[in-house]
Design brief:
This protein is α/β, with parallel strands linked by helices and about 375 residues long. It has 15 helices and 13 strands. The protein folds into 2 domains: about 290 residues, Vaccinia Virus protein VP39 (Rossmann fold, 3-Layer(aba) Sandwich); about 70 residues, Orthogonal Bundle (Arc Repressor Mutant, subunit A). Strands 3-2-1-4-5-7-6-10 form an 8-stranded mixed sheet, with helices on both faces. The longest helix has 28 residues. It is globular.
Length: about 375
């Protein structure tokens, strides 16, 4: 089985995936604990991390995988030591045994007030039903099946139904692309996209090129998630070692703009390339071999033009500009600041306080920006 070989070696893509999840967990946890303490009067209440396909904890080369990285973050944080409730599950009993041993060997694991729980069960419709019927305190769910068995729209929606609950899931594009046109996997694909959406996809995909298929499939899974309510969805793309085809995506689902914004910064840091400071939101091992091609596009120029068109005639604070404009676009806060400073220097937008009333090169959250009418 492919799953037997997956943990033999820690590939760079796996390192990047684990770095994204553990970095987001740390930032998410601090936001959740701070919010509980400040606004809910629930100082000291627990928060949770749940990994439904946890694996053995370490690759065969000794490199730690995501569960151990999460626990290391918690051990290093005094507040998390008191409040984290971590649950790890895997359908493979050998993986669960290996994970338990890896956890036992962690330096400082006894600092955690709530010792990590490990389970050995298959993830299916019963898990989605259990989550949907029970309330959760703030929880970050990580759903990382090697293929797609167990991953469903119901599971994703159930994992984020309560306040403070976010989900990161592994979207195996290669297998899903093949599975959509194979009737053997019809039930799995219907569970992932919804029956009606999956059926439409099967028809549309037959006439598309490889690139068009990928964009269409990714768009449809994002739209399927958004159809269930207000959702912020952010994908990160991984390519094969050659860089010529997509292998999978890591996708965040959050009900809050704060989570979406935090993950943008995390994914930007792990992107294998940037163009004018705009992150690619992908890890492509071949990108560094093709830097010449990047100079033929100007993403910051595109952002400046988009701002002038989309916000024409309006006056907004910098914070409002960023929050209202960045969703669904590849730009991070730094890109907006650089673009608006450039437009200000050219006299195209007006600011209050003006450029002469602020420290050079700064644009605080409350600076008001007036865009010219079209």
């Amino acid at each position: 089985m492919v799953t037997d070989k997956f943990f033999e070696i820690s590939k760079e893509q796996s390192r990047v995936k684990a770095a994204i999840v553990s970095s987001y967990f740390e930032a998410w946890a601090n936001v959740m604990m701070g919010t509980q303490d400040r606004f809910q009067g629930k100082r000291g209440n627990p928060i949770s991390y749940v990994d439904l396909f946890a694996g053995p904890g370490r690759y065969d080369d000794g490199t730690v995988s995501t569960p151990i990285m999460i626990l290391e973050k918690a051990i290093a944080n005094e507040k998390l030591c008191r409040r984290l409730v971590a649950t790890f599950n895997d359908g493979d009993s050998a993986n669960v045994h290996s994970l338990r041993e890896a956890i036992k060997g962690l330096s400082g694991i006894d600092k955690l007030v709530h010792q990590p729980k490990t389970h050995n069960r298959e993830v299916g419709a019963d898990v989605a039903k259990l989550l949907s019927e029970n309330r959760s305190f703030p929880t970050l769910f990580f759903i990382d099946p090697w293929g797609y068995k167990g991953l469903s729209l119901k599971l994703i929606n159930a994992s984020i139904k309560d306040w403070g609950c976010d989900c990161i899931f592994f979207f195996n594009y290669n297998r899903i692309n093949m599975g959509l046109l194979n009737l053997t996997f019809e039930q799995h694909m219907n569970a992932l996209f919804g029956e009606e959406r999956a059926e439409k996809l099967r028809v549309v995909l037959q006439s598309l090129s490889a690139d068009e298929r990928e964009l269409t499939i990714l768009e449809e899974i994002c739209q399927a998630i958004k159809a269930s309510g207000k959702r912020y969805v952010l994908p990160f793309r991984f390519t094969s070692d050659s860089g010529k085809r997509t292998s999978h995506h890591l996708i965040l689902v959050s009900k809050g703009l704060k989570g979406y914004t935090i993950m943008k910064e995390v994914m930007a840091k792990e992107s294998s390339s940037t163009n004018q400071g705009v992150p690619s939101f992908e890890y492509n091992p071949a990108t560094r071999k093709q830097p010449f091609l990047l100079q033929f596009t100007s993403p910051l120029t595109d952002l400046q033009g988009g701002l002038l068109k989309d916000l024409a005639g309006r006056t907004l604070t910098f914070k409002e500009v960023f929050e209202q404009h960045n969703v669904g676009r590849p730009f991070i806060e730094r890109n907006y600041r650089e673009s608006l400073l450039a437009l200000e220097a050219l006299g195209i937008v007006k600011t209050n306080p003006t450029i002469n009333q602020r420290r050079k090169g700064t644009l605080a959250q409350d600076v008001r920006i007036s865009f010219p009418s079209v």
